[in-house]
Amino acid sequence: MNTSNKLAISCMKAPDNTIQTNAASLQSAPEQEAKPRVIMLLGFSLIIIFMIIITTAALSSMNHMEGQLDKIVNHYAIKTNLITSMRTAARERIHTLHKMLSIDDPFEFDDASQLFYQYGSQFLEYREKLESMPNSSAELDLLEKLNTFTGKAGREQNDVFSKLQNGNKNAATLALINKATPAQDQTFEIIDDLLHLQKNKSEAE
Predict the structure, then answer these.
(1) Are the C-beta atoms of residues 195 and 80 closer than 8 Å to each other?
(2) What is the DSSP string of 92-136?
(3) Distances in Å between the alpha carbon of 199 and those of 52, 110, 148?
(4) What pLDDT was estimated at residue 203?
(5) Nearest to 83 by CA among 120, 128, 114, 134
(6) Phi and psi for 127 in degrees, rounded to 5?
(7) Do residues 90 and 184 lie in contact, with contact meaning Cβ atoms separated by under 8 Å?
(8) Do 154 and 180 touch, CB atoms closer than 8 A?
(9) What is the pLDDT of residues 11-35, one digit of tens each?
(10) Cα(157)–Cα(175) distance, rounded to whole angstroms?
(11) What is the pLDDT of residues 90-105, one digit of tens each?
């Protein structure tokens, strides 16, 4: 094959190489455009996952805090209810003694006597429940004082009740006014201090 023929063949093959190069470029172009899209999708997915994790953690923390707050509120609410019930029982017991001063019917006197003992039992029940709960040093100090004054008030009230049972209303009246009522007032002061303490602690929390 002479030189002129080789040149002719070479010229004829050149367009085929150019076409192959252009085809390869066209095939790689979509792949190059797809890579940034994949990276963007991955980045966006990671952001969404990160936001979900943060939101879940925040909600879990909020639920825990709400649970702790409810626990604290319920704790002080139970104590406040017990202390209030103690005060009501103590008040009704001393009031029963006052009413018994004017009772002449023996059956009515027996009914009042049952109430007198009932209110005393209720007071002790509420106090024991309060003492069984976790208490601060300030609460324990007040409860100790309450026990002291309650014992004194109880003895004075029982003395009035005994005089009433014996029909000695004049002596019962003097004992109620001069001893039992002042002793009961001291008990009320301690109970009120306990109530104020619960209120201050609940507000502080």
Answers:
(1) yes
(2) HHHHHHHHHTT---HHHHHHHHHHHHHHHHHHHHHHHHHHHS---
(3) 40, 39, 23
(4) 64
(5) 128
(6) -65, -40
(7) yes
(8) no
(9) 444 455 554 555 445 455 555 566 6
(10) 8
(11) 999 999 999 999 999 9
